[in-house]
Amino acid sequence: MATKIAFHGAARTVTGSKHLLTIGNKQILVDCGMFQGPRELRDRNYEPFPFDPADLDAVILTHAHMDHVGMIPKLIRDGYRGPVYCTRATKGISAISLPDSGRLQEEDAYQDRKRGRDVEPLYDEKDAYAALKSFEAVPYHQFHALPGGAQFQFRSSGHILGSAYAEIFLPNGERVLMTGDLGRYDAPIIKDPETVDWSEYLVIESTYGDRLHPQEDPLEFLHGVLSEVVADGSVLLVPSFAIGRTQELLYFIRMLQIQGRLPRIPIFVDSPMATSTTALYGGAKEEWDEEMTELMQEQYDPIEPEGLQFTRDRNSSKALNSMSGPMVIIAGSGMANGGRIQHHLLHRLGQERTHVLFTGYQAAETLGRRLLEGAPTVQIMGREVEVRAKVDKISSLSAHADQNEIFRFLGGFRQAPKTTFLVHGEPEAQDALAERIRTELGWNVEIPEHGQEFDLG
Ligand SMILES: [Zn+2]
User: In CATH terms, is domain 3-211+399-455 a member of 3.90.850.10?
Assistant: First the structure.
């Protein structure tokens, strides 16, 4: 039975993951992500799928980030009728983020129409809710049959809650391991990436294939910032990603409290998506690492620091404007280019007793990037604001393995895979990683181009 793999997204770029495995006359799509970032990439979302959704026999999702699941509602609206296999938490997070994405697209289309541009949303909220009915949760480490005599199982990839490698067993006995996004070792809350010792074919991400994360200890850095905030009575604004990063921050704050290094101050999570996701993290026992499990057993809930409050509606979010420090407000979006953090920044950037702490990568042309670059004034919601606040960044938090961590993962293999495919990376990162794998391990590495197909025998 001829087996092929084709890469229809995240090929020489970091978004739009869509990997199509053909086994005989059966087609299995792994991930159906949205292209994000520059216009020319986002435009691809509006093109027809490079395969007929009605012809697919199964879809497997590695995790719930939009660049891996974001196009599922469109796939189903365009004719896909089969199951969407994922872990329980991926289903839970998608149930929050896909309808939210549908709503955002309706809003964007409405704004575009007001500007005279007639752009249809990729899908709306209704499409997203309809799509969720096809999601089927499969437990980790449980073999599940696929059409055409293949099987698969999910294994922890340590990236975010619910993230998994898809380990696919072909009818001829060979394996294809798709890492999805590979997480970090020793990160808080969730389990480390699992060790894999064998797979004939490996499809691995390469986001940080050419870099090492800074060694700075995020707990100590955060302690430094929070000590200043407490001493000055200032307000700490934290633009944060709702899935994963917010929960890590809550964990670090809780650790400082348990260690007696931080007095009780109000901590607001001002993001409906972060609020719902935090509840999922708190309920996903099967995914907690040992430390998280022990602390939970000792009643120390490590993602619920003392003083934590969730603001659900817009009014309670606005009410935070009249409060004074010391306090912490964690709100989306992580790059400050949308979400409730914008009105907090608008209100407080001009005040000296404000501290802004970025917690992740800030893309070019985002408000976050401009603030980090030290802009004296910025535009927010059509208004010009003078920046008097102190602006900082924790640079060591990332949900992706760096080059050494990728090598730690590859080091688990007892034998070289026949082919290792590098996906989900910019060309420089991929070229550097491929070079190191070839010279140090002597493995056969391919870097697929967009749309390229390979025979797997
Ligand atoms: Zn991801």
Answer: no
